């Protein structure tokens, strides 16, 4: 891809009438205007951001499909229809440059591009799907009639378990090694036998997506190497500033660097828990006070949150020790638990300064027996949730709204409504991170001292 | 010990002759361990296993393979040594004998020798990272505390242990029939659970994501004390769950667990089951029957079975009316009996797991392999303990299960030490059922991979 300053762009790709999804295998041989470089990328970024927000709000697959169609239509159309494909490809490759540079950026880009690809695939025609399947290097074979007859009963059981129509006599199933379709295996959405998963046509998207994700992941690593070794320096005066600016335009604060370290002391914690902790952290905190113990998942979720809130490591050690000593004794605490607290603060092992968990991460966790972490809006029964909200001081009308959101699986919106009810003020941005809940709450409740110069 | 005997014996307990009673008191102490590691622990077998055929005899062998495996030792004073690695069997054996760890854990095979890890970058390209690791599962009976009334915490008895047996059957069948794995080792964890090691090449090369997918495939029980209904089947069951139910779980629940745990015998207990039924009219109907039933003279034995039948009848009669009750019976059975795995253990390749044939420090029992085809036979209360084994060594009794063979003296001395003890049975099983088939398959894989490579180079040379 050649970047050209202020010249009319010319393309030499043939006129594609069939709108197939590109494979993004190679950077296209095109000349691109510098302005388009930035504009295309921003348009695509708007689409990716829209997807990110929707996923965080827990939107269902059907809603996502419509959303992607609308976002794409709104942002990725080119005045010249024949240029649509080029804009698609160019914007993708530009964003690769932008998002290859750190682990976090890569992770985000990978997730969003994969989601985008998935829904665009689903929106395509059967013909388009089949054509794309062939383009990908997939290790799957259509099963024979005999194989189908032998597995028919089991295939029907799987279909029934998801309220899907039963496979007809001419249904096409693909036999694929189970490790190629981890999502389908995890959800028990396929029949598996002797290491092979029997994948239905409508599930084929999972195969495509896994492959896409894997290819893109590898490509990003390579792009990063190239960027660091040659491109960044070469393009110092042209692309590099654009690329660096583009990446700042999204990802919200991750609360890994608290500016106000040490502002929170142990004696404030009980009061802060009551006034400013989101329900997930309040529950963990209360359970810790009650049982003088938390299992690993809870220690991580609460511990990192407290770090993000501004609790210094020394205070954290004292706090956890005071609690755990009641149950396991001070000596055992020092031996078995102190290490991992220090680890969270980046003082042990490979010294990663761990980031407090975002709502998305917490919602997708899997608390088991004896655990208290996770998102109460998702993991609590309605009865327990109502009780917990009552203890937080949420009134009956607000509670009905919250419960309604939960029933529709909008866990973060439920938390936002709780915030609004407890603080009697609105939260337009919506809650995406427990530490955001805390700092927003803190802002409202702390009296501000204005220094007028 | 009489005065006479005490004058006789020195501190070296091994001097006691066969005729005198063995005076090794039960328990666990470092001296016992020293003898165990010196004479009984199967170092060679562990080495062969962990080498997966890379013994240097075949041109395709990777000589660095064993040296890249992480072991970790827990020493007597709770000192924990991670990232131990060894380049040969003798290095492994000598280190174990010298350090006498109270616990040995096995970690993954890394990209480079763990001892050299600091020389490699951590971030970015992640050059020091796990490359192979068995697919492992850890099932602990304390995770079932909310459904067993006979014991709690670390205790285990013959009434609740069958929960582990059932878990083995369900998971083992799925690993073989569904996932196509062959080389599976089940091990008693020494106190209150079982471990599973899946050692096929395909399993060892699985990514974290793929392991997570398998763990999720096995996951049925969701939630904790904060949620009411931990098992929920919104639709008809997946074939795997159907098979588990019809082949193992239903029978176990109805014929064993109902009675051994007295699941319906008190109000507190039957209320727990009623809380799993999301229909007030059904639960109040049953509650009404059971509250008045207390007056009738059913023997203790029958009451659980009787009430379970009543529950099933009531649920099935209302089938047409309420959707959510369709699979309530299955949900209850699964809630009590379906395996509860520790997800985190299986998902991450760098998770360490205790090595088989270790001795559990709290119980003194040896972590022996379990035959999944015969798992009901394992009685956790009679698993050999360290002190028992040492007694057996001392008396020199042969406990070999050699049918109709009488040992002549010369043969006796050629026999391996462990053959003289109850450990012999376990080691023989480990070798014949697991290690030998595994190594055979490793060699075959190596051979065919090698041949393919040769063929490839040949092809590329041709014009």
UniProtKB/TrEMBL annotation, chain A:
Superkingdom classification of source: Eukaryota
Protein name: DNA primase large subunit
UniProtKB/TrEMBL annotation, chain B:
Domain of life: Eukaryota
The name this protein goes by in its record: DNA primase
Gene source species: Citrus sinensis
């Amino acid at each position: 891809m050649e970047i050209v300053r202020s010249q009319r762009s010319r393309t030499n790709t043939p006129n594609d009438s069939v709108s197939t999804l590109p494979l993004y295998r190679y950077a296209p041989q095109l000349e691109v205007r510098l302005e388009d470089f930035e504009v295309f990328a921003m348009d695509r970024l708007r689409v990716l951001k829209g997807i990110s927000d929707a996923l965080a709000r827990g939107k269902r697959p059907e809603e996502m499909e419509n959303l992607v169609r609308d976002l794409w239509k709104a942002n990725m159309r080119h005045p010249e229809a024949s240029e649509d494909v080029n804009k698609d490809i160019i914007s993708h490759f530009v964003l690769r440059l932008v998002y290859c540079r750190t682990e976090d950026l890569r992770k985000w880009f990978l997730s969003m591009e994969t989601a985008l690809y998935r829904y665009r695939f689903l929106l395509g025609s059967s013909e388009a799907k089949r054509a794309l399947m062939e383009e990908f290097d997939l290790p799957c074979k259509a099963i024979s009639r005999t194989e189908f007859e032998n597995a028919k009963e089991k295939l029907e059981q799987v279909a029934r378990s998801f309220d899907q129509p039963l496979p007809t006599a001419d249904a096409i199933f693909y036999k694929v090694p189970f490790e190629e379709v981890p999502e389908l295996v995890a959800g028990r959405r396929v029949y598996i036998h002797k290491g092979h998963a029997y994948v239905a046509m409508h599930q084929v998207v999972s195969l495509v997506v896994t492959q896409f994700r894997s290819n893109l992941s590898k490509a990003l690593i390579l792009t990063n190497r190239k960027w660091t070794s040659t491109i960044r320096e070469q393009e110092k005066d042209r692309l590099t500033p654009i690329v660096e600016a583009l990446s700042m335009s999204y990802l919200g604060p991750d609360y890994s660097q608290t500016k106000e370290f040490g502002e929170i002391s142990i004696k404030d914690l009980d009061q802060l828990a009551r006034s400013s902790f989101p329900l997930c952290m309040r529950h963990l905190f209360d359970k810790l006070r009650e049982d003088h113990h938390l299992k690993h998942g809870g220690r991580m979720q609460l511990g990192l949150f407290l770090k993000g809130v501004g609790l210094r490591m020394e205070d954290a050690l004292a706090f956890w020790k005071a609690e755990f000593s009641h149950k396991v004794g001070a000596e055992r605490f020092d031996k078995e638990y102190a290490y991992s607290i220090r680890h969270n603060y980046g003082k042990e092992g490979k010294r990663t300064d761990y980031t407090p968990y975002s709502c998305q991460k917490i919602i997708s966790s899997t608390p088991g027996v004896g655990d208290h972490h996770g998102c109460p809006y998702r993991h609590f029964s309605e009865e327990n949730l109502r009780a917990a909200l009552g203890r937080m001081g949420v009134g009956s009308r607000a509670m009905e709204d919250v419960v309604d959101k939960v029933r529709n699986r909008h866990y973060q919106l439920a938390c936002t409504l709780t915030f609004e009810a407890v603080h009697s003020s609105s939260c337009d941005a919506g809650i995406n991170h427990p530490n955001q809940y805390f700092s927003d709450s803190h802002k409202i409740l702390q009296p501000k001292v204005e220094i007028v110069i | 010990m009489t005065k006479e005997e005490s004058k006789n014996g020195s501190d070296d307990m091994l001097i006691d002759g066969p005729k005198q009673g063995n005076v090794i008191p039960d328990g666990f102490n470092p001296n016992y361990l020293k003898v165990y590691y010196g004479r009984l622990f199967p170092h060679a077998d562990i080495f062969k296993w962990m080498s997966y055929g890379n013994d240097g005899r075949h041109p395709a062998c990777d000589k660095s393979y064993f040296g890249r495996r992480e072991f970790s030792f827990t020493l007597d004073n709770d000192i924990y040594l991670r990232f131990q690695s060894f380049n040969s069997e003798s290095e492994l054996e000598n280190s174990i004998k010298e350090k006498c760890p109270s616990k040995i854990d096995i970690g993954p095979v890394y990209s480079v020798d763990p001892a050299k890890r600091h020389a490699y970058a951590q971030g970015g390209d992640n050059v020091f990272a796990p490359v192979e690791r068995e697919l492992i599962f850890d099932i602990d009976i304390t995770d079932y505390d909310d459904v067993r009334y006979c014991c709690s915490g670390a205790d285990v008895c013959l009434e609740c242990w069958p929960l582990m047996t059932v878990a083995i059957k369900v998971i083992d069948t799925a690993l073989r029939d569904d996932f196509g794995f062959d080389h599976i080792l089940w091990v008693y964890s020494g106190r209150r659970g079982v471990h599973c090691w899946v050692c096929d090449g395909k399993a060892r090369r699985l990514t974290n994501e793929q392991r997570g997918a398998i763990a999720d495939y096995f996951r049925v029980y969701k939630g904790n004390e904060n949620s009411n209904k931990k098992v929920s089947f919104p639709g008809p069951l997946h074939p795997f769950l159907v098979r588990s139910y019809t082949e193992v779980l239903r029978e176990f629940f109805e014929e064993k667990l109902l009675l051994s745990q007295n699941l319906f015998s008190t109000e507190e207990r039957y209320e727990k089951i009623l809380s799993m039924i999301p229909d007030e009219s059904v639960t109040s109907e049953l509650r009404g029957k059971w509250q008045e039933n207390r007056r009738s003279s059913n023997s203790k034995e029958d009451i659980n079975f009787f009430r379970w039948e009543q529950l099933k009848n009531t649920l099935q009669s209302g089938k047409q009316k309420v959707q959510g009750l369709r699979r309530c019976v299955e949900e209850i059975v699964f809630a009590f009996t379906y395996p509860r795995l520790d997800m985190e253990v299986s998902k991450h390749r760098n998770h360490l797991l205790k090595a088989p044939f270790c001795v559990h420090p709290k119980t003194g029992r040896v972590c022996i392999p379990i035959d999944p085809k015969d798992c009901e036979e394992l009685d956790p209360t009679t698993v050999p303990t360290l002190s028992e084994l040492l007694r057996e060594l001392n008396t020199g009794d042969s406990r070999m299960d050699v049918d109709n063979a009488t040992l002549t003296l010369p043969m006796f001395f050629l026999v391996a030490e462990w053959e003289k003890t109850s450990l012999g049975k376990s080691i023989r099983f480990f070798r014949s059922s697991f290690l030998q088939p595994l190594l055979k398959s490793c060699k075959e894989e190596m051979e065919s991979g090698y041949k393919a490579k040769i063929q490839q180079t040949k092809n590329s040379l041709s014009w």
